[in-house]
Amino acid sequence: MQKILIEIIEDEKGIVNIMKSYLEKEGYDVVCAYDGEEGLEAFEENDIDLVILDLMLPKLSGEEVIKSIRNKSEVPVIMVTAKVDEDNKIDGLRLGADDYVTKPFSPRELMERVKAILRRIKKYNIPRADIIKTEDGRLEMDLEYNRFFKDGEEVFLTKNEFQIIKTLFSNPNKIFTREEIIEITFGLDYDAYDRAIDTHIKNIRQKIEDNPKKPAYIKTIYGMGYKSGGLDDASKK
Ligand code: CA
């Protein structure tokens, strides 16, 4: 079985060593980089499954590193920061981090987050393909650039809306409960409640459906949750 390869980009050697030994104990392979440039180089050279990225780095900041990574990859990224500032947290998430830990953190907590993200990816078919299209060709989702089109016109979605559609469209035929949508879209410890998902879905339907009251692309399965419509497995290459 191929081992999972995790990259640590962090300039504090002591922290790198602790994280590395914990990750290796869990059975992961680890690549370490000690500044932003080296981090991007190592990311290019290896087939990385998950990145643990420090925010404050020499040469290139964590923000710059994640921007470059996101230009070409959907790889999960956990941001590590010493700043407790909420603005930085929001910034990191906006730039595409999947999760966040604030220093000082316990290695055990970090391991739980790594495992949770990897579980999420394995459990659900998070796509590596770049474009998802509905069978009728009317809706098109560009996963590389996070853009969405209907009949060739761009539809502007919020990050949350985009992530929710991505979850549904990446797994045609699967019915998602509201809890699953929250877990996949926002992460386990996101403090969302079920009805928030209904509101997002309502807003998405206004934007993408011809008739939001009779939705064709995001279907409600009563008593269960939601599923995509207009896609089959063959539409995913
Ligand atoms: Ca640092």
Attribute tags:
single chain; five-stranded parallel sheet; 11 strands; elongated; 237 residues; 8 helices; binds calcium ion; four-stranded antiparallel sheet; alpha/beta
What does this structure look like?
This protein is α/β, with parallel strands linked by helices and 237 residues long. Helix content is 41%, strand content 19%. The strands form three sheets. The protein has a five-stranded parallel sheet, with helices on both faces. β4, α4 (86-94) and β5 (99-102) form a beta-alpha-beta unit. The mean pLDDT is 86. Bound molecules: calcium ion. Residues 11-12, 54, 56-57 line the site of calcium ion.
- How much of the sequence is in beta strands? 15-25%
Major sheet summary line: 5 strands, parallel
The arrangement of helices and strands along the chain is EHEHEHEHEHEEEEHHHEE
List of distinct ligands in this structure: calcium ion
Binned, the helix content reads 40-55%
Strand order of the largest sheet: 2-1-3-4-5
Mean pLDDT: 86
Number of helices: 8
> What is the CA-CA span between the terminal residues?
24 Å
What is the total tally of β strands?
Answer: 11
Please compute the radius of gyration using only Cα atoms.
19 Å
